[in-house]
Fold this sequence. Notes:
6 strands; Triger factor/SurA peptide-binding fold; Chitinase A, domain 3; two-stranded antiparallel sheet; 3 domains; 54% helix
Amino acid sequence: MTVLARIKTAFREPLVHFLAIGILLFVVFGLVNDDQSARGDRIEITRADLDQFVAIFSKQWQRQPSPQELQGLIDARIREEVLYREALAMGLDKDDTIVRRRLAQKVEFLMGDASGVTEPDDATLGQYYEQNAERYREPPRLSFSHVYFSTDRRGEQAKADAEALLERLRAASPRVTQVPDEGDSFMLPFVYIDKRTDEIARDFGNAFPAQLAELEPKRWHGPIASPFGIHLVYVGSREEASVPPLEAVRSRVVNDWLVEQRRVADERIYERLRSRYDISVFGQQVEAQ
């Protein structure tokens, strides 16, 4: 093949076309732009920028900015842009952990927008719910009243006082379910109606509702200890743990499904991006998983 033929063949290659176009654009840009523009030193505040300033100001202060305030917003944006570009020119964005993380977060946000995940249809949602039903199981519910005996105030006598009152309550006729005048004052309610065991645990600790869940309803029990002291407890009703129907927790299930699908989609996008790079750790090549 002659030299001329080889040149003609080379010019048919897409890579050569790409390089040629790049060189041409570089030359043209240098000719039509002065030195200042070529350095990217032009800062322009557009009408869209002004509209954004006004919208943000109005949302925060519930009114339109005055001319002086608007000029202040413009000056602040210009100052920010000047300092931002100077930081880039000095390479301050390099090897900065905070900047790296922020840029990575922005790409992750873009990945989320690009995932294209939409709400599932009823069949898909139903299947997802069946596969993850235990995630939505409701804890047991209890209704109860209690009498409090402070071990700080009564010391060792607290247990004996509780046992004596328990005997009287069990013997009472008609049945007594609340005795607000007995025992000691307490910072929390004396009556709890239809509360989940995890809600009760936030007030009394985990051991307390676990003990209540084992008690026979419609009867006084005790003494039962809590971090506060000693209690007598009347369990009015108890509802066992159960899995609610889908419609009762539909919005929660939809949200969980969307979060999971977006996570999967984001991971796929990330793996495609990762495949563009040769990665080594301590000199050892790391293959994509």
